[in-house]
Specification:
6 helices; alpha/beta; about 170 residues; six-stranded mixed sheet; single chain; about 15% strand; 6 strands
């Protein structure tokens, strides 16, 4: 979340084994990052780099989130994303998506209107009730967005089951 630490090492490892890396980041998004209220809802959004413009824009988004949007955690807002998402694939992320909020659904419609080729509703084959319920809401919402595209992913925070404890420690840090 909110960083691309290790991306250069990741690219090098991928290159050494002839794998094309996908560079991206899950970010926290709020309606307006200038408003800092206790208990705010920080929702999720994902960005994937398509080209050099996208790489520059992802770096701009992450820098803005850390410098101007920081409130307990780095966060970005709808307007900044709309203004800086060229060269990026934008997806709705997991069940903590911005699509859970009315303002987020309006933002998504703006994304579709202005960046339809690079905007996707993200579905994850996770077998737990919250994700299943969220998918049903997504499918109902998608009917309001003619031509919307879908992407399948997996919200994978670690590869091996035995890494769960290390992941928890990382989150605590």
């Amino acid at each position: 979340h909110m960083n691309i630490n290790g991306v250069l090492e990741f690219q090098e490892v991928c290159k050494n084994v002839d794998i094309q890396p996908v560079i991206g980041c899950e970010c926290y998004i709020v309606e307006n990052m200038d408003i800092k209220e206790k208990g705010e809802l920080r929702q999720h959004i994902c960005f994937y780099v398509m080209n050099e413009t996208g790489w520059k824009n992802l770096n701009k988004i992450l820098t803005k989130a850390r410098i101007d949007g920081f409130y307990y955690k780095p966060r970005i807002d709808y307007k900044y994303v709309l203004d800086n998402c060229k060269g990026l694939i934008v997806t709705t992320a997991c069940s903590n998506s911005f699509l859970n909020l009315l303002e987020g659904r309006e933002f998504f419609k703006e994304l579709i209107e202005n960046h339809a080729d690079n905007t996707y509703i993200e579905l994850m084959p996770l077998e737990y009730e919250r994700q299943y319920t969220y998918h049903k809401r997504l499918l109902r919402f998608s009917r309001q967005c003619p031509g919307v595209k879908f992407i399948a992913s997996n919200d994978c925070h670690y590869i091996n089951k035995e890494d769960a404890n290390i992941h928890d420690i990382l989150l605590a840090i």
